[in-house]
Amino acid sequence: MVYRISQILYPRLAVLITTCDRSGKPDVATFSFFMPVSFEPKYVAFAVAPQRLTFANLQEVKEFVVNVPTAGMLSEVWVCGSVSGREADKFKLAGLTPVPSEKVKPPRIKECPVQLECVVEWMGEFGDHWLVVGKAVAEHVEKTDFEPLLHYSGKRFFKPGEKLEAV
After folding, report:
1. Is residue 167 one of the residues assigned to a domain?
2. CB contact burial 42-79 (16+ within 10 A = b; e otherwise)
């Protein structure tokens, strides 16, 4: 049996990435191929398929916002990952509130307790996805003691269970 990489490397943090086109029209999409890259300065990276509206937007406006949803936002995260922004306003469809960013054009999401405004520093093609590396130019942290949403594959998600500490 051949497994998808998302089924053998999991769980992964699910995030909502907001982008916009050159006219300012925003979009939000769910990503779990996401990771931190550097502590100082703060860099993050995510992988995006070139067919996605997020990719098209990043070609026009090389900025994005990483919005970290809570585990209680599963239905909103699912809407943003399963509906195309070319066909619907996912902010309205998911009931999410866009708020202006301080340093980048794409909006932040009010309901997410952590938001990182980022500028694209590098993009490169790897297989069927492009890796996007962004530098955080502003951060908004309402709280850090929330349960994040973790993604397995497809419709399967998790929330953190038992806390473990190394000794």
Report:
1. no
2. ebbbbbbeeebbbbbbbeebbbbbbbbbbbebeebbbb
> What pTM does this model have?
0.95
Assigned domain for 75 exists? yes
**Residues spanned by the domain of 46:** 5-158
145: tokens are 């003691």
Q: List the pLDDT tens digit at each of the 167 positions of the chain.
A: 888 888 888 889 999 999 999 999 999 999 999 999 999 999 999 999 999 999 999 999 999 999 999 999 999 999 999 999 999 999 999 999 999 999 999 999 999 999 999 999 999 999 999 999 999 999 999 988 999 999 998 999 999 887 767 88
